[in-house]
Amino acid sequence: MEDASVNLPPGFFFSPTDQELVLHFLYCKASLIPCHPNIIPDLDPSQLHPTELNGKALLSGNQYYFFTKINENRTTENGYWKEIGDTESILSTVDKKVGTKKYLVFHIGEAPLGTATNWVMQEYQICSSGFDAASYRSAWRRRKHDQICSKWVLCRVYEKRKSDQQGVNCYSDDDDSGSELSWLDEVYLSLDDDLEEIGMPN
Questions:
Q1: Cis, peptide link before residue 34, omega less than 30° from 0
Q2: In 3-state terms, what secondary structure has residue 109?
Q3: How far is the C-alpha of 148 from the C-alpha of 137, rounded, in Å?
Q4: Distance, CA of 17 to CA of 15 (rounded, Å)
Q5: Distance between CA atoms of 4 and 129, rounded to whole angstroms?
Q6: How far, in Å, are 12, 184, 194 from residue 188 at the CA level?
Q7: Cα angle: 55, vertex 58, 61; to 5 degrees
Q8: How far apart are CA 100 and CA 166, in angstroms?
Q9: Residue 192: φ, ψ to 5°
Q10: Rounded Cα distance, 171 and 179, in Å
Q11: Is residue 26 within 8 Å of residue 35, measured between CB atoms?
């Protein structure tokens, strides 16, 4: 998958919600429904260090997206992914549980004594119970639910800034801590400083 097909054209930005990732991408993948455009590749994270995702996974902003098989052992050649925090439920617009999301942090070294890095993985898994799949019925209703739920997960991987490393909640994919000024704020502040130096006429 090391080709341009996993990259977005200039001007396009892939920024789906958790619900959209589950319903529009993961359900299609799990039930063999063709997904257009098919821009998320299949990867095995146990074969890659997070820094090696570039050029292999779908990159949008600072986030990498890929499908992989469900595997409780996320060990790589030089580290491992460790699950942290609680598994979150993903709800549909009618408040039905359609999937789950769990957080993992990449550690360098051997478990359980590895050193945590800034690399975070959000792993999405579908949940068929209580889901009204009317739009998908023709493709996956013939398949058993356990077959749908037992094979694929969708992963979103990103590197957190060191300034954001404050507890489990810092692993949210919202990378705007709100503590830094935007470039526009800095411009306005610099204009205020200039006006004070010049002084207003009496």
A1: no
A2: coil
A3: 13
A4: 7
A5: 37
A6: 29, 6, 10
A7: 95
A8: 24
A9: -65, -40
A10: 16
A11: no
Amino acid at 140: W
Name 154's bridge partners: 67, 124
114: DSSP letter: P
Read off the pLDDT of each residue in 140-167 and give the average, rounded to a whole number: 66
Beta bridge partners of 122: 103, 156
Dihedral, CA of residue 159, residue 101, residue 123 and residue 83, to nearest 10 = 70
Q: How many residues does the chain have?
A: 202
Tokens 């095995």 identify what position? 44
Cα-based angle 163, 165, 169 (whole degrees, multiple of 5): 125
Euclidean distance between CA atoms 189 and 153, whole angstroms: 46
pLDDT tens figures, 45-102: 999 999 999 999 999 989 999 999 988 788 999 999 999 999 999 998 888 899 999 9
Q: How far is CA 70 from CA 109, 135, 152, 155, in A?
A: 22, 25, 6, 10
Tokens linked to 63: 């986030």
The pTM score is 0.70
139, 31 contact by CB (below 8 A): yes
Q: Which domains are assigned to the chain?
A: 4-171 (2.170.150.80)
Q: 19 near 90, Cβ under 8 Å? A: yes
DSSP letters along 5-73, please? Answer: GGBPPTT------HHHIIIIIIHHHHTT---SS--PPB--GGG--GGG-TTTSEEETTEEEEEEE--S-
